[in-house]
Design the sequence.
């Protein structure tokens, strides 16, 4: 008997009684042991024997009581959304074709210069009325359907304008066709304008069609990320290997991954080794060698080896899920710059309607003859040319493409506001240890002091013993060195860690103090005689720690942390952008300066205790600088939060760094410059879009109203107005999509 | 000036006044959360448009889009970093846990239709 637990969505649940009905229906299916339906999540969870019961039986049981089960997960949000979008797009395309073909035919039969070559039936006003009515009430129905409920709420949008505009042209033409003598009586030649109504609808829908297609690709990045998710996992349970859906993987499951397979969830290798391509998640292009004890990230690709690993994070806790959540949140956020566009667009449509009424009044009362016709056509042109959509699309489309582009390169931007601030960064402060350097220092020198007769092995033994209890990265290096040399460490009592200074403790009767100069001064241990030696080591960029045994200096241990490969290039890129680079460190000035020299032209802030980093950030901000702080995100949270933009270097599989505005999961330091470049480019695109969207409306609405007529005799045909309007929102989306082409140096 | 022109001017001024009153002077009715769930119907805008929710508590907003207008297919709660696709005639729930009091706007994806969340 193979009992399986399965959770699936059910469509149509809306009350508690549905839950009862469904649970009863599912329980009746042979093989189902237990069925629970959740009203809030609209999901059913069943425990069943897969040898007895099939998913089809469950589906039909659910269908039997009037609901729809999505047992095989085909109802994934993204898929459903995609299918619905595609269906909508197909329908829209058909409407565009119908309205443009009909509009074309009517224009052929009515446009001066063209109509001479058209079949006579197309010139018949009755035929034109019939054709135009098809467009007005099938493709054009969308505009009415959007307008009527909006009016009920006393709101108006783009569709309201198109509906009023095309209805005016259509209604006038109907009157001309049905009562030509009425119009002739006003001294106007009875000519209908069915072509205007039909072509305007066709062109606006065409614009909307392309816009929908273009808009879909603004969110491509997130779809790609979602698509990365593995579907199944090969787990080892009860000494058997079995493929199970990824949703059923539990924490602690042992999963086997073979060459060329996708890693299903986050975890830690327990056996085997391999090279893993993590580029899809972290943007890191070179495959990473991993072995027992190393962490692996779900959705990355195993290249060469085969291994088993223990699942540590599943579902919403995996790195990929966190990245998706972060990007989704960023794409849903609002840039401060957008607020002005929002305010304007909420007044925009009513203002355009008022302008259109004004246009009608002016042309009718002081315009040339036939005044009614001029008044009508110019009013329609004003209504049609106004394009509030371009304003609405200007910011969000650019934010979506920009944040998506970042995510593809392992740059996760928290929200649009962070992106907006990042463009103005003038100073970047790097935390040294673990950010600019690998953060894994190694012991380079063990120097006992001659007159104490302590040998280097003993010195290392004492240092290793006392540092065993410390969590500092330097401590790790010393303990590792001692263990590598096969030294047995002693038990330490009264251990005490002094932040930013060192450690204290007792081994047997001996009192040990191990740390930097500050600690020695505090403990009143003299190190004057060793000062030149210490300085020499520090000039080489090494961190020197002093060890005292029973209040007497016993020796020095030097540790060096090497720079990351990308550090030099990352800093140069920032300097080329005119950004000042500062390195902040707890090391003394000399050590820090030695590192800074390797990097070239950077400012050093040394001797900073961890809790003082935040103060240093504020000090630099007080110089009038807009500051980005780059740190590891765990120890540097206050400094990250204090900076104008906090940039955290992602660590392992954790990307949910609260204090950071930008998280770099690719661990590449060139991404800092890339983030600033991306924000500058995105903001430039937004500004261009807004300028274009506002400029377009400010310039063309008056032109459509006919302000150029008195001087140049220029008027805007409503058909051209609709063409311009379709092009306008399209160009804004198109401009945002150009952001995809930005080259990011990561 | 002929009578028809005078009439057109009078009606146009009336039309402008009416448009202003109709769209820009409407009273926003505020709806407070009854329990921790508020249903918002998306049809020609948001109904209710202005909702009041408590600070520091989780409130679920359930959007049901009944309008085919593509403008309304997404809802954006910018202050809460939420952008959601609203499939037609389906309930989409958004959870809010506001920490700050104040008024926060929400809108459709294109910023055409607006609503307001008042956190008390």
Sequence:
């Amino acid at each position: 008997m193979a009992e399986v637990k399965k959770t699936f969505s059910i469509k149509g649940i809306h009350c508690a009684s549905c839950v009862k009905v469904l649970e009863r229906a599912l329980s009746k299916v042979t093989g189902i042991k237990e069925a629970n339906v959740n009203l809030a999540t609209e999901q059913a969870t069943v425990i069943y024997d897969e040898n007895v019961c099939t998913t089809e039986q469950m589906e039909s049981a659910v269908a039997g009581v009037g609901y729809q089960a999505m047992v095989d997960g085909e109802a994934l949000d993204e898929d459903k959304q995609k299918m619905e979008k595609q269906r909508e797009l197909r329908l829209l395309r058909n409407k565009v074709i119908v309205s443009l073909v009909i509009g074309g035919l009517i224009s052929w039969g009515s446009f001066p210069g063209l109509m001479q070559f058209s079949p006579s039936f197309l010139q018949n006003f009755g035929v034109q009325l019939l054709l135009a009515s098809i467009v007005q009430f099938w493709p054009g129905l969308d505009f009415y359907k959007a307008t009527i409920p909006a009016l009920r709420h006393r709101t108006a949008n783009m569709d309201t304008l198109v509906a009023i505009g095309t209805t005016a042209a259509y209604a006038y033409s109907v009157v001309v066709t049905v009562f030509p003598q009425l119009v002739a009586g006003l001294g106007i030649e009875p000519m209908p304008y069915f072509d205007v109504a039909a072509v305007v609808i066709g062109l606006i829908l065409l614009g909307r069609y392309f816009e929908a297609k273009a808009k879909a690709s603004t969110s491509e990045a997130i779809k790609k990320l979602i698509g990365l998710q593995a579907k199944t996992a090969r787990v080892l349970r009860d000494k058997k290997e079995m493929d199970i859906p990824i949703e059923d993987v539990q924490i602690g499951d042992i999963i086997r991954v073979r060459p060329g397979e996708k890693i299903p969830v986050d975890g830690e290798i327990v056996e085997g080794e391999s090279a893993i391509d993590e580029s899809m998640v972290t943007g890191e292009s070179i495959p990473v060698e991993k072995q027992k004890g190393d962490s692996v990230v779900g959705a990355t690709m195993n290249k060469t080896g085969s291994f088993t690993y223990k699942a540590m994070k599943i579902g919403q806790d995996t790195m990929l899920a966190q990245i998706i959540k972060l990007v989704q949140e960023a794409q849903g956020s609002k840039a401060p710059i957008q607020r002005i566009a929002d305010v304007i667009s909420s007044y925009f449509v009513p203002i355009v309607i008022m302008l259109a009424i004004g246009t009608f009044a002016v042309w009718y009362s002081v315009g040339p003859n036939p005044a009614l016709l001029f008044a009508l056509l110019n009013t329609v042109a004003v209504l049609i040319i106004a394009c509030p959509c371009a304003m609405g699309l200007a910011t969000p489309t650019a934010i979506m493409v920009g944040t998506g582009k970042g995510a593809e390169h392992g740059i996760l931007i928290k929200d649009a506001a962070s992106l907006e601030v990042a463009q103005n960064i003038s100073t970047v402060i790097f935390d040294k240890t673990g950010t600019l350097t690998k953060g894994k220092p190694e012991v380079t020198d063990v120097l006992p002091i001659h007159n104490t007769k302590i040998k280097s092995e003993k010195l290392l033994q004492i240092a290793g013993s006392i540092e065993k209890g410390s969590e500092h990265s330097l401590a790790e290096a010393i303990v590792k060195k001692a263990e590598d040399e096969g030294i047995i460490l002693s038990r330490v009592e009264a251990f005490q860690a002094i932040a930013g200074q060192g450690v204290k403790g007792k081994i047997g009767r001996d009192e040990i103090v191990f740390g930097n100069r500050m600690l020695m001064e505090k403990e009143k241990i003299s190190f004057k005689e060793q000062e030149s030696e210490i300085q020499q080591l520090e000039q080489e960029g090494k961190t020197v720690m002093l060890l005292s045994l029973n209040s007497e200096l016993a020796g020095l241990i030097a540790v060096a942390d090497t720079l990351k490969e990308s550090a030099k290039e990352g800093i140069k890129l920032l300097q080329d952008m005119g950004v000042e680079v500062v390195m902040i460190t707890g090391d003394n000035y000399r050590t820090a300066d030695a590192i800074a020299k390797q990097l070239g032209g950077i400012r050093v802030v040394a001797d900073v205790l961890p809790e003082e980093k935040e103060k240093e950030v504020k000090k630099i901000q007080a110089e009038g600088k807009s500051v980005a702080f780059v740190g590891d995100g765990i120890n540097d949270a206050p400094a990250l939060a204090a900076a104008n933009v906090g940039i955290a270097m992602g660590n392992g599989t954790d990307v949910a760094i609260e204090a950071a505005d930008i998280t770099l999961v690719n661990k590449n330091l060139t991404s800092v410059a890339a983030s600033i470049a991306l924000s500058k480019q995105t903001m430039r695109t937004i500004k261009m879009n807004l300028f274009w969207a506002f400029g377009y409306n400010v310039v063309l609405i008056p032109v459509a109203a006919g302000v150029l007529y008195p001087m140049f005799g220029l008027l805007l045909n409503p058909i051209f107005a609709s063409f311009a309007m379709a092009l306008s929102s399209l160009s804004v989306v198109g401009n945002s999509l150009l952001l995809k082409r930005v080259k990011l140096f990561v | 000036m002929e009578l028809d022109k005078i009439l057109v001017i009078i009606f146009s001024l009336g039309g402008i006044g009416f448009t202003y009153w109709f769209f820009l002077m409407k009273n926003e009715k505020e709806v407070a959360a009854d329990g921790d769930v508020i249903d918002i119907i998306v049809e020609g805008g948001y109904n209710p448009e202005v909702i009041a929710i408590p600070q520091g508590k989780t409130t679920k907003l359930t959007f049901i889009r009944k309008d085919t207008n593509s403008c309304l297919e997404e809802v954006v709660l910018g202050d809460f970093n939420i952008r959601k696709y609203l499939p037609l005639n389906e309930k989409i729930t958004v959870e809010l846990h506001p920490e700050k009091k104040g008024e926060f706007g929400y809108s459709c994806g294109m910023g055409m239709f607006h609503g307001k969340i008042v956190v008390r």
Observations:
- Strands of chain B lie at 30-32, 37-42, 46-47, 50-53, 59-65, 74-77, 82-85, 91-96, 102-108, 114-119.
- The longest helix of chain B spans residues 3-24.
